[in-house]
Write a structure and sequence with these properties.
The complex is a heterodimer of chains A (217) and B (250). Chain A is mostly helical. Chain A is 57% helix and 3% strand. In chain A, helix 8 packs across helix 10. Chain B is of the alpha+beta class. In chain B, a hairpin with a 2-residue loop joins strand 1 and strand 2 (180-189). The longest helix of chain B is centred in the first third of the chain and has 21 residues, at 35-55. Classes of the chains: A mainly alpha (217), B alpha+beta (250). At the A-B interface, helix 1, helix 2, helix 3, helix 6 and helix 7 of A face helix 1, helix 3, helix 4, helix 5 and strand 1 of B. Bound molecules: zinc ion. Zinc ion binds next to helix 3 of chain B.
Chain lengths: 217, 250
């Protein structure tokens, strides 16, 4: 089928009608910043409506689960559990809010109760010291980074070395492109803590990347 | 804000799209005039983009996807396009353009042939959010006839369903390569803007592939045409798009 979709750079993505037989529509908000998928309430909170919202998130949920669990089978289990829980809780989803942030929060809570999290990092994940906002350093010159950050494997390696809470906040912000406010909701922390954690995460990432390139600053 | 330099917090918020509209305007006004802050914003955005790329590490196998879809205990829905993150990548692209002016895109221009440089430039030119394709449609029945009479040759577009996963035709531009009219097809491949230039085989001479600062150029022959893809996405993804387009020509 041909999509009659008209995409305009820098303007809000178009509204998508539901697939054949579906009852819920999906609307992309016009807010600047990351585009959001927002459910319109059509009065019927059907499974098809849930699928319309959840299926586009599968790849992101799985990738995020892999970074959390560090294991393929456990990550799949986690996404499966997330989908089951989200389906059961779908009635509590507030139309007009970001579904992605909602389901990521469910996945995160499911993860905190998982074997891996309890065994490895639950205390680390839950630890939350309130700290002053630490402004990010200006870091390397972009010229250097244009060359250096090209190497995806090196950045992946550095990401893998970050402490779980720092990696988590960085993934939600830089990859999933959720707003500070949405991230605060997922992690159950104040927005100020999101900012300071992000700043620490980026500083740590730079520090991990620098020696590998023999960089100096 | 125009009085002093942007604060580190503002730079971070700019890169994270957390500034309000009027703050963005003020920041952009300062950035246009201030080299140091422009470099700092570019640096922050580069790191963010590198993180996003590197963090997208694990892909869902079709089997796993099928199992997960089954979890929702419903029908398997047909592929749908969800063009997310357009704003983000447009903003990043705008910053890359900023880098072009700031750094003169050193590596890019210094060793590339004039034609290769022209193609990179044409691709970069469509990235900023202010640029809109001349024909804005993902429908091949709209896009292809639009070129009628504008080009001295014709070409085919594949069915959207035949394109690789997460690949969407966004629109097209008429452009000029080496002074000759050429088609520039604009695709979105997993968040990345991809330009595919359709030219007559004998009109331009290109290397089969070329890398410049994270941007790739891949060129293949398809009958009487040369198909050239330019993007910052993985070379394999460019080849996949070109293969489908190549098939459509035969
Ligand atoms: Zn400044």
């Amino acid at each position: 089928m041909a999509f009659a979709t008209f995409l305009r750079r820098g303007s809000p993505p178009p509204v998508f009608g539901a697939g054949g037989g579906g009852s819920a529509g999906v609307n992309s908000s016009a807010s600047a910043g990351s585009s959001k998928i927002i459910a319109m309430d059509f009065g019927r909170r059907s499974r098809a409506g849930f699928e319309d919202l959840a299926l586009p998130q599968l790849a992101a949920l799985y990738n995020h689960a892999r970074w959390l669990c560090r294991d393929e089978a456990e990550a799949e289990d986690l996404v499966q559990e997330t989908l089951s829980k989200a389906l059961r809780a779908f009635d509590s989803f507030q139309p007009g809010t970001n579904f992605k942030a909602w389901i990521f929060r469910i996945q995160r809570n499911a993860f905190l109760n998982s074997r891996t999290a309890i065994a490895e990092s639950r205390t680390v994940f839950l630890e939350d010291q309130e700290e002053a906002f630490d402004p990010p350093s200006l870091g390397l010159t972009p010229e250097q980074e244009l060359i250096r950050l090209d190497n995806i494997a090196l950045v992946q390696d550095a990401l893998a070395q970050l402490s779980p809470p720092l990696r988590e906040v960085l993934l939600l912000c830089d990859l999933e492109e959720l707003s500070y406010k949405e991230i605060a909701g997922i992690l159950d922390i104040p927005t100020g803590t999101v900012m300071s954690r992000l700043s620490r995460a980026r500083q740590a990432l730079r520090e991990l990347l620098q020696p590998r390139f023999g960089g100096s600053r | 804000m125009s009085a002093g330099h942007l604060t580190p917090a503002t730079i971070a918020a700019f890169a994270d799209h957390e500034l309000a509209a009027q703050e963005i305007a003020a920041a952009q006004e300062h950035l246009a005039a201030c080299h140091a802050c422009a470099l700092a914003v570019l640096s922050a955005t580069q790191l963010k983009a590198a993180t996003a790329r590197a963090a997208q590490r694990y892909t869902l196998s079709p089997e796993m996807r099928a199992r997960l879809v089954a979890t929702t205990r419903g029908r398997t829905s047909s592929a749908r396009t969800v063009p997310m993150r357009m704003y983000t990548w447009a903003a990043l692209a705008a910053l890359i353009l900023l880098a072009v002016s700031v750094l003169q895109w050193r590596g890019l221009r210094s060793t590339a042939s004039p034609t290769v440089a022209e193609l990179f430039d044409q691709h970069l030119a469509v990235l900023p959010e202010t640029s809109t394709p001349q024909v804005l449609s993902s429908d091949r029945h709209t896009v292809k006839p639009w070129f009628q009479g504008k080009l001295p040759y014709s070409f085919n577009l594949p069915e959207p369903a035949d394109l690789p996963a997460e690949t969407v035709l966004q629109g097209a531009d008429l452009t000029y390569i080496g002074g000759k009219p050429a088609a520039q097809l604009l695709f979105l491949v997993r968040k990345h803007h991809v330009s595919v230039f359709v030219t007559q085989r004998d009109a331009i001479v290109l290397p089969p592939s070329q890398d410049r600062n994270g941007f790739h150029l891949v060129s293949v022959q398809a009958g009487a045409l040369t198909l050239t893809a330019v993007s910052d996405t993985a070379e394999a993804e460019l080849r996949a798009v070109l293969t489908v387009l190549g098939h459509a020509q035969s």
